[in-house]
Structures are given as C-alpha cells and as structure tokens.
Specification:
Length: about 240
Amino acid sequence: MTLLRDEHLAAAFDHAARSYDTLVAANPGYHAHLRRSARRLGLPRGGEGLRVLDLGCGTGASTGALAEVLPSADITAVDASAGMLERAAAKTWPPNVTFVHAPAERLAEAGVTGPFDAVFAAYLFRNVTDPDAVLRTVHGLLAPGGRLAVHEYTLGGRRTDRAVWTLVCRGVVQPVATLLGDGELYRHLWRSVVEFDTADRFADRLRANGFDRVRRLPLPGWQTGITHTFTGRRPTTTETAR
C-alpha cells in the first residue's frame, strides 16, 4: 500500500475517531509517556503566563497530558481531522484549552498565529507530506527561546526495534483495527514508521531546520527504541545573529 497523505489521511482518521481511544487505552504507558514528553519541555510554574500549541492533538490525549503538566498554560490544540477534533472537544476541559480545526500546513489560514512559548507535537511529523516545511512553520511560530517537544515513533536503528514494532502492529494492532473497519489506517501506521526517519536522522532534521539544544530522549517499556521524545529550542535573536 502507499502511505496515506493529506485529505486521505484526515478522512481515515475521521473514520477511526470513534474507536481511537479504545485502541489507545490498550497501549501500556501511552498516556504516561505523553505526560513524560510534556514534562520534558521544561516549562516553569506550571506554564503560568505561557502560550502552548498542541499540534496534531487527535482525540485530545496529548492535550490532556499538557493540561495536566501545565495547568496554567494557555493551550491551543489543533488537528486536521474533523472527526478526531470533535471527539477531543466533546471531553471536559478547563477554559484555558481551545481547539482549532486546521492541518499543520495551513495554521495561519485558521487564525493560529504566534508567538508561542512552546510547541508540542505527538505522532505528527511522519504523517505530514513535508516535515521540513512544517518544522519551519513551527520555528516561525515560536518566540525566540521558545521550546519544541516532539513525541514520535522513530526507530532507533537496531533490527530488534523494527522487529518489535512489526510484531506489535501485525500481531495485535492491525487485526483489531481491521475488525473495527480501520485496517487501512493502521497498515499506514506500520509503514509510516518504518519508512520515516530513524531517531538520529530526525534529530538531525531538527537541527537543519534551525533548532538548537536538540536532544533525543528514550521512553521506557516496550517502546524503548521505537518511540522517542525530541526536544529543541528556537535560538534567541542574539544567538541567531552570531
């Protein structure tokens, strides 16, 4: 199969929205890992006085992690799938959380403008057609010194990493998703990971798109070597001019 992109991927997520949280709940550590990545932003005072963009929020799992870790931040959560966003917005949220329907490539058209103090993106970049263009957009939305955290399936490069990922997808996730009528999306999931950057390559991609202080951080459990947190920062104006 070819990878799903743009409106085809959004439509697949629209269809899968009804069962997405059920599948997520079966993934050990899913929500705890998102909270860990949110904490790795390193924002002070629970986010008081700060603007945070949750890019690719899905049904709101990443938004929930941010709201728990940064309860005082002003959080804007964005997704390209109307179905996923509807599920997210229907949950109970504090007044400092706002949802916007927009693809990552057209944020300005939807009124999403910076500067943001931080951007959080979970399971997004392997799903966009041009990850470099989206990273440049994110860089432009951040205030100087603003922080980025990317929580993503990026294989560590060992054969065992790909083997474990394939075993989990083909042995557990894809059969269940097929029964639910979403087999195409979860076949895309497997392939999108094995064809995307390794963890080292994605860290290099962040640096190439203007981020400094880039770190690649592992996550525990079965996802070690499969899912990573990447953190980086937009340099300050003084540092950029050097």
